């Protein structure tokens, strides 16, 4: 199906020392050595392990040889695919624009090979993704979800105010560290909106988390601008953390995309079980308004009682 992303698992043979810095890499301050303000080159990093594979790339855990500081290095082999090269350059532009939010994974610089392969040095998130944590924990408590929601909303509000639409919010794209700080990652299909009513038409992102107006813009709020779509995906993500399964599917049920698309477009929005608090249910209702114009924005949701009392930077105590 055209809507489903084509995931390629390339065996990326990209020896780090061959890569040239695309721009200098002033490393963040560190307490360990005097190399804190040094400019790094790719040869300064040692690969430790593979953290994950994504669309066209592999993410490695790497160690800076002089400071011993750990980073994630995302390598994307773009030389065979001009569209992928354009998209990774856009991802870089977005990461460069989003350098001062504690709720967005920070990039420390990039290297680019003459053939167009690109490596992005990222802040290392040592507890993995919310998706991985969910698989281990089974479900999250409401308190943990509220703490995560507060941080993700902070990140979405920050991005949206800079005209950046993520377009692929889901548990697998939300990274966590051991302090349970949650940060938005993977801008591989994101978009910078050039004008207020810039239409956001292309079917990129993960289809299951797409909003009704993305499939049928006319029926659900007119022009699809992407911002409200991120809020729908965010609502589904929180529900998934609470229920331990994707809300439109029963546990263990395999996704049948046609049925799923019909459920999103023609069914009622999914609701939380009775066990959830009234505040949480109201919050999810505001995220999952089918009409995109009625859906709450990130800025509005930050005022909702489910999260409004929480400090901006508080990590969750436990799942
Ligand atoms: N900064 C990071 N710290 C720790 N792990 C990371 C980091 N970035 C990515 N990962 C791991 O690598 C995996 C793949 O990363 P990512 O999703 O960014 O790659 P991608 O090629 O953009 O994938 P996609 O196909 O979803 O666009 C993630 O699921 C996560 O497990």
Automatic annotation (TrEMBL):
PROSITE patterns: PROTEIN_KINASE_ATP, PROTEIN_KINASE_DOM, PROTEIN_KINASE_ST. The keyword Mitochondrion does not apply. The keyword Transferase applies. Signal peptide: none annotated. It catalyses: L-threonyl-[protein] + ATP = O-phospho-L-threonyl-[protein] + ADP + H(+); L-tyrosyl-[protein] + ATP = O-phospho-L-tyrosyl-[protein] + ADP + H(+); L-seryl-[protein] + ATP = O-phospho-L-seryl-[protein] + ADP + H(+). ATP binds at residue 74. GO terms for biological process: response to other organism; response to stress. GO terms for molecular function: ATP binding; MAP kinase kinase activity; protein serine/threonine kinase activity. Keywords: ATP-binding, Kinase, Nucleotide-binding, Phosphoprotein, Serine/threonine-protein kinase, Transferase. Its EC number is 2.7.12.2. Belongs to the protein kinase superfamily. STE Ser/Thr protein kinase family. MAP kinase kinase subfamily. This is mitogen-activated protein kinase kinase. It comes from Rhododendron griersonianum.
């Amino acid at each position: 199906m055209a809507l489903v992303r084509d995931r390629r698992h390339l065996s990326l043979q990209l020896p780090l020392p061959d890569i040239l810095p695309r721009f200098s890499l002033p490393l963040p301050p560190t307490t360990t050595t005097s190399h804190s303000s040094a400019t790094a080159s790719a040869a300064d990093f040692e690969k430790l392990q593979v953290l994950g594979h994504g669309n066209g790339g592999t993410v490695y855990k790497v160690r800076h040889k002089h400071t011993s500081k750990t980073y994630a290095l995302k390598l994307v082999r773009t030389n065979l695919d001009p569209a992928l090269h354009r998209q990774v350059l856009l991802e870089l532009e977005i990461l460069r624009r989003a350098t001062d939010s504690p709720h967005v994974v920070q990039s420390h610089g990039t290297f680019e090979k003459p053939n167009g392969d690109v490596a992005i040095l990222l802040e290392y998130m040592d507890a993995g993704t919310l998706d991985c944590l969910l698989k281990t924990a089974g479900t999250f408590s409401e308190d943990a979800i509220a703490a995560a929601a507060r941080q993700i909303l902070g990140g979405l509000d920050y991005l949206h105010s800079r005209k950046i639409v993520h377009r692929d919010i889901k548990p697998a794209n939300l990274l966590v560290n051991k302090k349970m700080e949650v940060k938005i990652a993977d801008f591989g299909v994101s978009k910078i909106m050039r004008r207020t009513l810039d239409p956001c038409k292309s079917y990129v992102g993960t289809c299951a988390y797409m909003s009704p107006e993305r499939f049928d813009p006319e029926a659900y709020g007119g022009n699809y601008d992407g911002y409200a779509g991120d809020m729908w995906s965010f609502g589904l993500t929180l529900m998934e953390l609470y229920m331990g399964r994707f809300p439109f599917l029963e546990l263990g049920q395999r996704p049948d995309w046609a049925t799923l698309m019909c459920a999103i477009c023609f069914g009622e929005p999914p609701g939380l079980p009775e066990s959830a608090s009234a505040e949480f249910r109201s919050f999810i209702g505001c995220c999952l308004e089918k009409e995109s114009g009625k859906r709450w924005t990130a800025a509005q949701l930050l005022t909702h009682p489910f999260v409004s009392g929480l400090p901006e930077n508080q990590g969750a105590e436990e799942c």
